[in-house]
Amino acid sequence: MTQTSIKEHMIAGWKRLSGQGRAFWALFKQRRVIIKQQSDKPVINHPNWQLLAVVTVSLILMGFLFLDQAAGVWKSTVPPVTHKLFRLYTDLGKSEVVLIPAALAILALGVLNWKALRVAQQAALMRVQMLGLFLFVAIAGSGLTNNLLKIMIGRARPRHFDELGPMTFDPPGLSSSFQGFPSGHSATAGALAIILILLIPRLKWTWIGLTAWIAISRVVVGSHYPADIVAGFAYGAAFTWLLAAWMARHRLYFRVIDGSIDVPNQLRLSATSLYKSLSLLRQKAYDKASNKSAQGED
């Protein structure tokens, strides 16, 4: 492939991506108009925020008063094997684990030539893009705002426990050593919990257990105190729930069904339809390249 053809493909891909961005913005504005005109706007049964706030604040206070001190002493007694195992598991809480695949899916599908597909196949790819956008905004949004809170609060991490104790705050926390509260990995874990519950609700308690252990692993490896992970997990979960509720009200991937945020069956991702769409695009690209090659030989 020559340098000129590569440049042409990049320009064409950028045009398709920008065109999709404009189409999405037009769809969003259209949905807003429809929502404003609705007389019976969908009502979402939100969680009991007051109860959740009381429980979360109570757990954080328990951490400040009792658990954080105990965790600071306990971290030096963790066996090396346990530390290594939890160090592997804790990496699942890194935001890039979700952000990179989500961004690649959005960009890769955005540069494809959707005009070659039927409407149903375009809809399948659109669902993948919309889901990727939700994942990206949920993880990146909760992560960035959580990091701002960490800097503003400036709590010392457990690595300084012996010299400073668990209750040292030095805002703004411009150094990583003073960015302990709330935990960023735990915020990602909380966001993942809500994402997985919304997509596969029948496994709700499985998702809560798996993601909660990502947060707990931060205490085991000595990176955070218990209060840090409670605050981070709660923040990531709340951020993602509110984002999903906003998308449901605007009918962007999610819908409000009987007061709950849900994904209608016709909008759920189908591996078969996605595979067929990508296969058709690949075949059309191959046919186009073959035709160009044949014309060049003529």
Automatic annotation (TrEMBL):
Transmembrane segments: 49-67, 97-116, 128-149, 205-223, 229-248
Domain Phosphatidic acid phosphatase type 2/haloperoxidase: 131-244
Keyword Transmembrane helix annotated: yes
Key words of the record: Membrane, Transmembrane, Transmembrane helix
Pfam families: PAP2 (PF01569)
InterPro entries in the record: PAP2/HPO, PAP2/HPO_sf
Keyword check for Transmembrane helix: yes
Xref: SUPFAM superfamilies: Acid phosphatase/Vanadium-dependent haloperoxidase (SSF48317)
Record-linked SMART domains: acidPPc
PANTHER family named in the record: AT30094P, SPHINGOSINE-1-PHOSPHATE PHOSPHOHYDROLASE
Protein name: Undecaprenyl-diphosphatase
UniProt source species: Cohaesibacter gelatinilyticus
